[in-house]
Amino acid sequence: MMDGMAEISLESEERVIIVGVGLIGGSVAAAVRRRNPTCDVIGIGRCEKRLQAAADAGLLTDWSTEVASSTLAGRCVVVVCLPVHLIAGQVCQIAELATGDVLITDAGSVKSVICDAVNSHPRASRIFVGAHPIAGGEQGGFEHADSELFEDKVCVITENDSAPALPLLAGRTRQFWRQLGCRIVDMTAREHDRVLALTSHLPHLMAAVTATVVGSDNLPLTGSGFRDATRIAAGDAALWTAIMAGNRSCIVEAIGRAEEELALYRTALEQQDDDRLLTLLAAAEKCRRKLTS
Amino acid sequence: MMDGMAEISLESEERVIIVGVGLIGGSVAAAVRRRNPTCDVIGIGRCEKRLQAAADAGLLTDWSTEVASSTLAGRCVVVVCLPVHLIAGQVCQIAELATGDVLITDAGSVKSVICDAVNSHPRASRIFVGAHPIAGGEQGGFEHADSELFEDKVCVITENDSAPALPLLAGRTRQFWRQLGCRIVDMTAREHDRVLALTSHLPHLMAAVTATVVGSDNLPLTGSGFRDATRIAAGDAALWTAIMAGNRSCIVEAIGRAEEELALYRTALEQQDDDRLLTLLAAAEKCRRKLTS
């Protein structure tokens, strides 16, 4: 029943335009292609060779190095899957060209800077609904695209509360991401950024610190624990710099909390207070075990 | 050829006695049983019911709640797989009872406190060679034992340099762990503890801090990155308290280095120095990528 409804809705979109065909953009393409093989999926990117390769891999039905007004006619969804610092500019540019019943959404890991910039653009603010599917991997490029990447993953939708004409569009956005397999969670952009600083951006920094401090010479004496704990630190540094820079104040606050907590461990060790050490580790164990239970 | 040599050597041991039949002890038992089905594998523990269950699972050929002198006759290897704070005391107690050609080794994650305590015991110091197979998991208990747990894992051997009669015994210890699948690395106990503070103990603390700081309410918005980065924080808090307390000064030093590195990220974010941020993240990315390449 739900599947039936979902299919009808994705079919009601004439085409899906994906701006930035990397891991996320490629996976959106793959997911749309798998769920609705008759829907046009058009990739927009910089490099013709890469776009043709993505088409050859079956991800795209067509591609272009620029968005044309004719592509933005009729009923279509544009999904901007660029690095976060490029999203708002691209959304506004596309909004200028849109003539049809166009919905623009994105997959950026930060939301406030993007939504604030889009909201200051009258035309873009009326057709953009921000989204963040919490899915990914440390290996970039459409070669790692996966049509099931979004299956059962949370997608945060940041409905634009300052643009009252949007509820209908927000519903269409929710439906779009739900059809790719996502579970929808509605949040404000600011709340999203505060929480993601703790659930994603701080963990990345902690993994990066752990990977740097260990030193290359000691890598042979690492085990599976280190491997898992630092896996995300292998993610693309430029992409993560843009994410961190796009959520500066929340991340600085999260780092402050981590510094306080780490100091508690240091003090307990220095003062030989093993009861305190046990209490700290037990709290962490309890918190982490909630995730698997 | 190597396999043949290995088999002959494990067969030359009349029995393997495992003190503490949890994840590691159970996996040692499983590995010995698989590689030499005719070798006696005797489990020593506190709880009769658990020991019988481990025997029923095929891990042990016999068990007891205490080590008897008669068990320690002939040529045998004792592997002490207890929490680290209990290892040295148990090694000395077993050494007092040993009458045959007995080798005692262990699987503790810290080495200096154990080796120092054993070296102060004249009898124990002559028959003990410390070991640390770098393998494990956050799920304890012999139910998770795996005969392949040690396959291709590093096992650090800390040959006792203050006891000159040991080289032969150290060779026998290397051979024992090699037969379970390990790659042997020789180190002093002090060097082991300094390196493991960085490769294992600090990563555990960083994961614990990350898991605690996130807060339970935010867990639904975590992704696979958070899941991997904090997995080890689900490890048993009491076991890890003993490990941390057994390597205090090295871990405090490692925390200091992590605090310095984390402060570099905070400062770069506060000062909006994105070039610096990129440099830091790129260094971490490069370091972590060495592990998979």
Write the layout of secondary structure elements.
Two copies of one chain form a homodimer.
Chain A: H1 2-11, E1 15-19, H2 23-35, E2 40-44, H3 48-56, E3 62-64, E4 75-80, H4 84-97, E5 101-106, H5 112-119, H6 122-127, E6 128-133, E7 154-158, H7 167-179, E8 183-186, H8 189-214, H9 224-230, H10 237-245, H11 248-270, H12 274-292
Parallel strand pairs in A: 1-2, 1-4, 2-3, 4-5, 5-6, 7-8
Antiparallel strand pairs in A: 6-7
Helix pairs in contact in A: 1-7, 4-5, 8-11, 11-12
Description of the structure:
2 copies of one chain form a homodimer. With 293 residues, chain A is an alpha/beta fold. Chain A has 12 helices and 8 strands. An 8-stranded mixed sheet of chain A has the order 3-2-1-4-5-6-7-8, sandwiched between helices. In chain A, helix 2 (23-35) links the parallel strand 1 and strand 2. In chain A, helix 1 crosses helix 7 and helix 11 crosses helix 12. The longest helix of chain A has 26 residues, at 189-214. Chain A is elongated and about 70 Å long. In chain A, 53% of the residues are buried. The model of chain A is unreliable at 1-8 (pLDDT under 50). Chains A and B meet through helix 8, helix 9, helix 10, helix 11 and helix 12 of A and helix 8, helix 9, helix 10, helix 11 and helix 12 of B.
Oligomer: homodimer
Taken as a percent bin, the fraction of beta residues of chain A is: 5-15%
**What's the average pLDDT of chain A?**
92
N-to-C order of helices and strands of chain A: HEHEHEEHEHHEEHEHHHHH
Task: Give the chain pair forming the largest contact, with residue counts.
Answer: A-B, 86 and 85 residues
* Low-confidence region ranges of chain A: 1-8
Largest sheet of chain A: 8 strands, mixed
Q: Helix/strand-derived class of chain A?
A: alpha/beta
Helix content of chain A: 40-55%
- Main β-sheet, spatial strand arrangement of chain A: 3-2-1-4-5-6-7-8
